[in-house]
Amino acid sequence: MGFLDTLLGRTKPVKPDLDQLFGLPSAAITLQAAAGFTPTGLGSVCFAAAEGGAFAQVRKDVEELLNADVAQGDHPVEVSRDSYGYTWLLSRHRPDDLPALVNDLHAVNTALQDNGFGPQLLCSLVGFTDPDGRRLALVYLYKRGSFYPFAPAKGGGERRDNALELQIKAMVADDLRIEQDLGRWFPVWGAPGL
Question: Which of 106, 92, 89 is nearest to 21 (CA)?
């Protein structure tokens, strides 16, 4: 970073660190102990699909990799497209097997990144719920290399439980690199895995 960048207030972009995903099992233990939230066994990766044979092949390879677990009793990966045109890959595991889910999410992100499609990656998320039926996702922002909590308000609609999000931020701050810019805590309404 040069002198002019500092003078003009420009900052160096944070590099993605996919190994941050491996902090999720530790964060899950913290969430369960501190707030009663447990993993749902659902997690997803969101990306902007690219045109061309190379991307199609990587996507096919990723789906085959994730579907290899089907013989072990897990469910196949589900692919969907949201109203904004983004593609979501949803992986399902037993709620008590969060490490396997995290491995799936890491594998998808790594495959896309290693094949030159890192710029298409947007986020990954893992779903949680509590005994009262509240839902929560820990969302990893690929381009920022950080996490944030997303909690839809109970009762439906597109309202967030901001107080819960801030509580969760404080709870998991020792387990995960938290996104400090609250303006980047984007809502992921209707995201597969939430």
Answer: 106
Report the distance separating Cα 158 and Cα 83, nearest Å.
15
- Alpha-carbon 75 to chain mean position: 19
Domain count, the chain: 1
Q: How many helices (H) and strands (E) does the chain have?
A: 5, 6
Any domain includes 175: yes
* Cα–Cα distance measured from residue 15 to residue 6, given in angstroms and rounded to the nearest whole number: 18
What would the pLDDT profile of 44-99 be if each residue is shown by its tens digit? 999 987 776 766 777 777 777 777 655 455 556 788 889 888 989 999 999 999 99
CB-facing half-sphere around the CA of 52: CA atoms within 13 A? 8
Q: DSSP states of 84-140 as a string?
A: TS-EEEEEE--TT-HHHHHHHHHHHHHHHIIIIIGGGEEEEEEEEE-TT--EEEEEE
The reply to whether 121 falls in a domain is yes
For residue 193, is it within any domain?
no
- Please state the pTM of the whole predicted model: 0.85
b/e code 54-64 from CB counts within 10 Å (16+ = b): ebeebbeebbe
Domain of 93: which CATH number? 3.30.70
31 is written with which tokens?
A: 């969430």
111 lies in which domain range? 13-182
